[in-house]
Amino acid sequence: xxxKLQRAGSCFFAGFGENLYGDIYRAKGxxxxxxxxxxxxxxxxxxxxxxxxxxxxGAGADKLRICVIGLCLNSGKMRNALIDEVH
Length: 87
Hints:
- By secondary structure, the chain is of the alpha+beta class.
- The chain is about 30% helix and about 35% strand.
- A four-stranded antiparallel beta sheet has the order 3-2-1-4, covered by helices on one side.
């Protein structure tokens, strides 16, 4: 069963394949849930993977880190979509 974060990540990354945020070539991220669970997310065109991380291996004080590589990226639209999905 997928957690809220895994579902949110799935929806957020699904927008990459639809060019909602620009032409995305690769993305990686680290997310923390409200229950302090950590997940890694990776995207390449046609493939998205969300996996739980081991305890204590998070991104420091940040609850979210994401790196997106692409062309004509709309960072504001990505930020708003992710905030909407996680909250």
